[in-house]
Amino acid sequence: MVLRSDDMRRRNRLRIIQIVRRGGTVSRGEIAQAASLSPATVSTIASELIAEGVLIGRNAETGASAGRGRPSIGLSVNPQFRHAVLIILKIGAVNVAIVDYSGKVIAREHFHLDMANVSMEDFRRTLITEIRQTWDASGLAASQLGGISIGVQGTTDIAGLKLLRSPMTPLTDIPVALWLEEEFGAPTRLANDCDLIARALNWRYPERYSDNFAAILLAHGVGMGLFLRGRIINGTRSSGTEFGHMLHQTDGALCRCGSRGCIEADAGDYAILRRYRGKPADVKPDRHVEPAEIFRIAEAARGGDALASESFASAGRALGSGLAGIFALVDPFRVAFVGHGAAAFDLMEPALREVLRNSNASAASDIAVDLYVDEMPLVLDGCGIGALSDIDATHADRVWDAMRNG
């Protein structure tokens, strides 16, 4: 693909902002090296971004902001340039946060919302009210809102405008982004929570999570955010990779999606609890399981409880089956298990690796595995990265439009 000079310049601007945001305070020389750009190109673009208020130049001797054209030893993003609203929708709860342009959280609120029993209109009104309450409490002007990013338990359309389906609610095709864009006048995008977790890992630890890896959420549901060749993988029409709803066992246990034999029907926390309680596999899944329940069963397993041990081993076999299928298609890669289920991964791991050893992807039995028990910081980071990147792109578009029309 051949880029025009203005497209290349736009891409370079976005790349420079990204490098500075990741680095905190970065010299022009470091930017040039990281972006593979000439010092002259970096200097020109940096001066433009300082003049626009996007970046701040730090003077070598005083540490004060340097004006356009003056020498500086480092650049940082201007925290006050724009702000973003981040929303995390989970079963029974809405978390709203406001971040500045550097990604720092400056306000945060938690609200209870039982989406299982609300109408479409009640959900719209409640969500708008809670966002406005959090924004107004921050004291920020409406003009400072640059974008809204929403992380959801569930599947969105590929454009990130609608929540197609979710375990949070029986409602489908919910136009959440359109509601909020109309109400707040800011670009809004939804994303699957597992995708956001994968993006956050890629942002936080690029040396470990760069080209090929998966982030598997082990919680009430089982989901996957998948990176291949440095890019997030989604469906042709919807977000997320439905790892938890891949077939594990024909006519197997009942999944919360209504099908039978899904990976999640053996590996989700409701599945572990159902098996431990000795309930039939076709019993309707509990709508919500407290993490403490899983921790309690894990302690029982470590104390020698055979049924508890088998409950986690069954989960490990289901996860191993799904991974074996994916590895047979695209080769093995690193896996991060995330969520409260990851606290019991030691009880699932032997069965998981045994399945891999006996599969067509036997070499995958030694894959590197990382554990992150608390998924919320990662979902929030992924939301923030997406929102700020969208603000960067929107501003760049406005600059180019002004130049073309000027």
What does this protein look like?
With 406 residues, the protein is an alpha/beta fold. It is 42% helix and 18% strand. The protein contains 12 helices and 15 strands. The strands form 4 sheets. The chain has a 5-stranded mixed beta sheet with strand order 6-5-4-7-10, with helices on both faces. Strands 13-12-11-14-15 form a 5-stranded mixed beta sheet, with helices on one face. The chain has a 3-stranded antiparallel beta sheet with strand order 2-1-3. Strand 1 and strand 2 (65-66) form a beta hairpin.
Strand content: 15-25%
Radius of gyration: 23 Å
- Strands across the major sheet, in which order? 6-5-4-7-10
Average per-residue pLDDT, rounded, comes to 91
Keywords, please?
alpha/beta; 5-stranded mixed β-sheet
Brief overview, please?
With 406 residues, the chain is of the alpha/beta class.
Write the layout of secondary structure elements.
Blueprint: H1 5-23, H2 28-35, H3 39-51, E1 55-58, E2 65-66, E3 74-77, E4 83-90, E5 93-99, E6 105-112, H4 120-138, E7 145-152, E8 155-156, E9 163-165, H5 176-184, E10 188-192, H6 193-204, E11 213-218, E12 222-228, E13 231-232, H7 264-267, H8 269-276, H9 291-302, H10 306-330, E14 334-338, H11 345-357, E15 369-372, H12 376-405
Parallel strand pairs: 4-7, 7-10, 11-14, 14-15
Antiparallel strand pairs: 1-2, 1-3, 4-5, 5-6, 8-9, 11-12, 12-13
